[in-house]
Design goal:
Helices cover about 65% and strands about 0% of the residues. It is mainly α. Strands 1-2 form a two-stranded antiparallel ribbon.
C-alpha cells in the first residue's frame, strides 16, 4: 500500500489502466471511502421515502374518489416527499455511479480517457453549477426561516421553510459526492501505478 500527498490510500500493484473500460473502475481514496459510505447510508435510509410517497398517493386517491374528500395537505405532502427523495438521491446516484449514461463515444474510450473527460466535466461544469446553486440557496432558505414560511393555501402544511432547506442540504451532499469522485479521478490520473477498484466502497 502507498499513500499520496493528498491522503489517498492506494494499492500500487501494477495494472494496465488503458485495458480497463468501465467508468466505475477508479481507485479509492481515504476521502472517497468515508464520503461514499456516509452518502450510501443516507441514500439507503431515504429510499423509504418513495414507499411513503406511494402510500400517501394511494391514500389521497382513495379519499378523493371513494370518500369524495380531497385534502390539500396530502397534495403538498406528495411533492414534499418527492422533493426530498430527488434532492437527497442525487448524491447517492453520483456515488453509486451506476445511473444511465446515454452517449455514443464515452463508453468506447479507455478508462484514462474517460477519467480526463470526467475531470474536465467536474471542474468546468459541475463545480461551478453547484457553487451557483449553493450561493443562491443560502439567502433563499434563510429568508424562509426568518419568515417562518408556511403554505399559502388553506389547510396546507406548515414549516415550508423546512422543505426549502432540503434544497441546500441535497446540493451540499452532492458537493461532497463531487469531491469524493474528484479525488478518485485525480488519483487515477496523477498517482503512479494506482490500482483501480471495481467495487465501490459504499457497502
Amino acid at each position: 500500500m502507498s499513500q499520496n500527498p493528498v491522503g489517498a490510500q492506494i494499492d500500487i500493484t501494477h495494472v494496465d489502466l488503458d485495458s480497463l473500460t468501465h467508468h466505475t473502475e477508479l481507485p479509492q481514496t481515504r476521502l472517497s471511502i468515508w464520503v461514499d459510505r456516509c452518502l450510501s447510508r443516507i441514500g439507503e435510509l431515504l429510499s423509504w421515502v418513495w414507499t411513503l410517497l406511494m402510500a400517501v398517493i394511494i391514500l389521497n386517491v382513495f379519499m378523493r374518489y371513494a370518500l369524495g374528500e380531497g385534502r390539500i395537505e396530502f397534495e403538498e405532502l406528495q411533492w414534499h416527499l418527492y422533493a426530498v427523495g430527488w434532492l437527497f438521491g442525487l448524491s447517492y446516484c453520483f456515488v453509486a455511479d451506476d445511473h444511465v449514461r446515454v452517449d455514443l463515444i464515452h463508453h468506447r474510450l479507455s478508462i484514462r480517457a474517460q477519467a480526463w473527460i470526467e475531470l474536465l466535466g467536474i471542474l468546468l461544469l459541475l463545480i461551478p453549477f453547484l457553487s451557483i446553486v449553493l450561493w443562491y440557496a443560502v439567502p433563499f432558505v434563510a429568508y424562509s426561516w426568518e419568515m417562518q414560511e408556511v403554505s399559502g393555501d388553506p389547510g396546507g402544511l406548515p414549516f415550508r421553510w423546512l422543505i426549502k432547506s432540503a434544497l441546500f442540504i441535497g446540493f451540499a451532499l452532492l458537493a461532497l459526492a463531487t469531491l469524493s469522485r474528484l479525488s478518485r479521478v485525480i488519483c487515477l490520473l496523477f498517482v503512479p501505478r494506482a490500482q483501480p477498484s471495481t467495487k465501490p466502497a459504499i457497502a
